[in-house]
Amino acid sequence: MSHNRLGSEASPYLLQHKDNPVHWWPWGEEALAEARRTGKPILLSVGYAACHWCHVMAHESFEDEATAAVMNELFVNIKVDREERPDIDAIYMSALHQLGEQGGWPLTMFLTPDAKPFWGGTYFPKEARFGKPAFVTVLREIARIAREEPEKVAGNAGAIMERLEQAAGRREVPEGLLVPDIDDGLMEDFAGKLLGIMDGEHGGVRGAPKFPQCPMLWFLWRAGIRYGMDRACDAVKLTLAHMAQGGIYDHLGGGFARYSVDERWLVPHFEKMLYDNALLLDLMGEVWRETRSELLEARIEETVGWVLREMTLAQGGFAASLDADSEGEEGRFYVWRAEEIEAVLGAEDAAFFAAAYDVTPEGNWEGKVILNRLRDFRALSGEEEARLAALRARLLAAREERVRPGFDDKVLADWNGLMIRALARLAVLFDRPKWYDAARRAYGFVSAEMAVEGGEEGRLWHAWREGTAGAPANATDYANMIAAALALAQAGPPEEASGFICDAERWLAILERHYWAAQAGGGYAFSADDTADVIVRLRSGVDEATPNANGTMLSNLVALYLLTGKPAHLERAEAVRAAFQRDMAENPLGHASLFAANFDLLAPQHVAIVGPEGDGARARLARALRSVSLPGAVEQVIDDTTQLPAESPLAGKGPVGGASAAYVCVGPQCSAPVTEPDRLVETLRAVRRLAGQGAVRDGATV
Known about the structure:
Layout lengths: L11 H5 L7 E3 L2 H10 L3 E6 L4 H11 L2 H10 L1 E6 L4 H13 L8 E5 L5 E5 L13 H14 L1 H19 L15 H12 L18 H14 L2 H16 L13 E2 L7 E2 L2 E2 H18 L2 H17 L10 E2 L2 E2 L2 E2 L7 H8 L1 H11 L24 H18 L7 E2 L2 E2 H18 L2 H17 L11 E5 L2 E5 L2 H17 L5 H18 L34 H16 L2 H13 L1 H6 L5 H11 L2 E6 L5 H10 L8 E5 L22 E6 L2 E2 L6 H17 L9
Parallel strand pairs: 1-3, 2-3, 16-17
Antiparallel strand pairs: 2-4, 4-5, 6-7, 8-9, 9-12, 10-11, 13-14, 14-15, 16-18, 18-19
Helix pairs in contact: 4-6, 5-7, 8-9, 9-10, 9-11, 9-23, 11-12, 11-16, 13-14, 16-17, 16-18, 17-18, 18-19, 18-20, 20-21, 20-23, 24-25
């Protein structure tokens, strides 16, 4: 009888390990009870389905009978999918950081029988190398210390727990210490310092590896728009252009890999994550508004095409990721040899394609070719680009015959919220009703299929797969689904907006009831107050792979205030900022999404175009609105202002002389009605300058 208990789990990552000789337990009360019963320390292994080094450690150690025997003898072994239980991952990753170690996956932590961490690391090789001891050596030494020196284990665990609880708790301000206001002066100063670490040649932060780091790029873009900092906007444009032409982008199938191991964006870790692509789509759309970049437009089209073709499940939700590996080799599905391309395209077409996509007989990575267009950023003629598109289609068809990478088809509420928001916004910008329909369908799926049955209305599960929803929702699930609801409210038919706003307020009520960390000084904790199997409720404003829930909620709350007129939403937004004000000042880079969202609090922007549906003037004003970048603004195209709350400064405003009109508001102050598209563009650009100069806050009229 197998003692591996992962076979009945839903997670594709856990199922990857169901045949290991390790006696794996899934995280839960049964596993923790077994540790308490036996008194054995816990070996906690955390990873995810698309993780290359997780696969390496699995093949080397977890599939090895001898290594598994040592693990089974000395430990209670627990496997966690970090995407299914990000709350568990966050706690023990924070514990690793408290030990002075850099994080990463696989995460390998050693816990006391009551689940308190006392030591850990990431990847451990089977044999000693990379400056790391052999895994079995680590196992035997940790077990020896736990057995022979329990006081050392207890001391380590106690110290780590104390630091975790301190980090999650209220930070008292020492007497005499002034916490700076997060005002325009500090924001502009942060933008200038951030520019100092940007790579002026390749984009992104200098050095390698290079991650997209979308919260940072959003902040730079918003600072550039608000303060007229062309260098900030240029840094974002440069980064996106190099990513869009680099090997981190899949030039045949669309979509971006998680990061690049080099400084040029050439060599990716080949896994594709839903969240990266959602965040990049959203940012590229906003930058496209201002630049009308043909390159960004093409990458948006191609990446949305990939999402709808490969990442959308039959039920409507969006899947989590595609693996880096296929046939046991990283990147095998994506890379080429020159002779393979010639076999598909023929000599003449292959030579033309090779000149554009850096195809050489010797290759550009380990003797193989990663397709990219980094050598020459010049746009080819329309005829040449059309020819390349046809050649790419032929290569894509040939690639489809290969063994595909692993597909993690679980649906995560927070990642789906990010993609729903991006698609809803892009559907409006590019007039693509099918993109809106896909966003709307995914939203309906999460709202219905991932709802907790019974109990409080509006509670969600975090994960779903093959008909089963589970794992307690975290604050990011609600924050991102609120953001999705608000995006749909602005992108869809005006008569449906109130339903989405009601959903947002219902999820906000759940956040307030179960996540607001009043005793810790405010802000939203990551886990709910009734999540029973976490040893500490983390409360932080620091971004991880995705924007922090508190940064997202700061923007959400300002938008809800503008859409409902309820002062409580604005007051809560101010309380979120106050909760992390000291942390933001001390560590701006880690709080980029909170900094970016703070623009919304400094100058809430609301633009409404009012006029009858089908009116040509209304459509022209709407096109003008979408030709100017207004990050963070609430934008509505509506029939009349009866659809707005009575408390709104827009209440009572409408068409002028029967003609559709636009109104631009910053805070409580609104422009005179604008009826001409060119004049609307001028007004929007003027408002951006006024807001950046503080004039609106000082009482000037818009």
